[in-house]
């Protein structure tokens, strides 16, 4: 089971992620979207969407730092394990609460607004369940080991995660990892595998080109310079 979860599953997830992205880009480009439901309801969405997106962004950054910045680097900067733990505990909890509040409001909106609910697919429901489970289990795991310096996952889970990129998974690092952290890691991998097959695929569509595109200039119409409008053709005329 250890080999299956920590030595095989991560590569299966990576294969599903890459294959799904390639398939969606090649055969479902018009489906590569959030399928926004803002046209049906915008008041709640304008609150829930920013809360969720900012929360999940901070959660993602925290995971990237925790997993891929070695403990020796923060030690070299003079950041003690106690300081790192407190920053991770309070900062991660705040980000998690913001993300959970956002996703809870999004789910409430979908359930109570009939047009939005009718536009919700089984795929969306599965995505919400897995996404919420990943966030909640991460928060519960962190809070359940919050006393003292907490659980130092940077000496177990983080080295294992980095070893995956060398194609030599360090399975021994996962021995003794608390069950809640293991559950969170498995659900997180399932979520990654689902990304290309759900509306979450839009996370790979950052509008970077907007930073470099030329400005679109709009000019008001000056009747004196442009003269009178041309006469409308028959099918363009409005009824009297």
Notes on the protein architecture:
The structure is a single chain. By secondary structure, the protein is an all-alpha fold. It has 9 helices and no strands. Helix 2 (45-68) packs antiparallel against helix 4. The N and C termini lie far apart (78 Å). 18% of the residues are buried. The model has no long low-confidence stretch (mean pLDDT 86).
- The stretches of 5 or more residues where confidence is low (pLDDT under 50) are none
Helical proportion, percent range: 55-70%
Which H/E pattern describes the elements? HHHHHHHHH
Based on CA atoms alone, the radius of gyration comes out at 24 Å
- The number of helical elements comes to 9
List the topology elements:
Blueprint: H1 2-27, H2 45-68, H3 71-76, H4 81-112, H5 114-118, H6 122-144, H7 157-163, H8 179-194, H9 223-226
Helix pairs in contact: 1-8, 2-4, 4-6, 6-8
């Amino acid at each position: 089971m250890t080999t299956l979860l920590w030595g095989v599953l991560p590569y299966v997830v990576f294969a599903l992620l890459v294959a799904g992205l390639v398939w969606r880009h090649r055969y479902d480009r018009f489906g590569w979207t959030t399928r926004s439901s803002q046209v049906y309801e915008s008041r709640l969405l304008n609150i829930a969407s920013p809360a969720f997106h900012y929360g999940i962004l901070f959660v993602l950054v925290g995971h990237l730092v925790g997993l891929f910045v070695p403990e020796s680097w923060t030690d070299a900067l003079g950041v003690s394990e106690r300081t790192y733990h407190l920053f991770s505990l309070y900062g991660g909890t705040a980000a998690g609460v913001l993300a959970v509040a956002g996703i809870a409001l999004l789910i409430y909106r979908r359930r109570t607004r009939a047009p939005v609910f009718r536009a919700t697919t089984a795929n969306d429901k599965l995505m919400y369940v897995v996404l919420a489970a990943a966030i909640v289990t991460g928060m519960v795991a962190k809070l359940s080991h919050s006393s003292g310096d907490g659980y130092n996952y940077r000496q177990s889970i983080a080295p294992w995660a980095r070893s995956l990129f060398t194609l030599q998974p360090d399975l021994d690092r996962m021995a003794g990892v608390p069950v809640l952290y293991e559950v969170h890691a498995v659900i997180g991998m399932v979520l990654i595998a689902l990304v290309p097959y759900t509306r979450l695929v839009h996370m790979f569509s950052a509008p970077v080109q907007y930073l470099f595109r030329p400005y679109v200039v709009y000019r008001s119409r000056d009747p004196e310079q442009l003269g009178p409008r041309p006469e409308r053709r028959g099918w363009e005329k409005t009824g009297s």
